[in-house]
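Prompt: For my understanding, could you write out one protein's sequence and backbone structure tokens?
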Amino acid sequence: MNNNAPALLLVIGSILPVPALAADAQDIIDKVIELDEERRKGVDRYVIEQEVMGHVSKIAFERTTVTGPDGKPMDTFRMVLPDDVLQPDPAGDPVMSQEDFEDMAQEAVYSVAAFSESAELVGTETVDGQKAYHLVAENLDRKRSYAEDQEFVLQTVNVWIDAEQYVPLRMVMDGTMDTDGTPRPVTIENIERDYREVPGSNMYEPYQQVMRLTGEMADETKRQMEQAREQLQEFDKQLAEMPESQRQMMMNMMGEQIEMMRKMAAGDGIEIVTTVRSITVE
């Protein structure tokens, strides 16, 4: 999913403690929020059409009001779920509800405030040819459960902010994931690139997002990867026996998914590229 500037800090801030921090880092984050609000002024709803592994979808965002850390109302944006996502699962319950995204919008506001109070300015570096401020929060030991038997412990967060446009360019989170009683190191990297001005507004948004997940696999995951390797070998044999036209059609349809499976089977982790086709302000 394509994220706006404060939304990129959602995952970070929601699991960070709040120690004192350097004023320079606070100034940078304040500038990110200030410019994002200014660019979205006058926009109440926009729709992103994006492509992920050959699949095209549309995601809408609407302006909403939440309660800020100071208890005062604040404007932000919430995701609006498409009808097919709201359909109940076989048990009769919705997979997700609109209230879930209301909660995420509320959490995002607190998340930015939490990150502001945790980050320190390391210095300036270059990301994809752009000068960027490097902010880091270390030794966090912040826990978050995703299921009854899954727990992620965040230790370090690095964020790079464009020094000219004040938009996020890269984020790296390091921690451990426990799925079977044994914590294993995990790294989550998110890259935002190809920023453009959005037609009909002053919005400035990334048109490509790259998410990478790497880390040590649990034993069960290793067994699944071995099965995936065997399946890929069989698929390659079948692919080689197909006529050229059929083989090309298959690769056009499933090429990105197959490439991701190859990387996973080789132990290179998961990489998901999201390409934005258009952003329409309504």
About this structure: The chain has two domains: 5-217+267-281, 220-266.
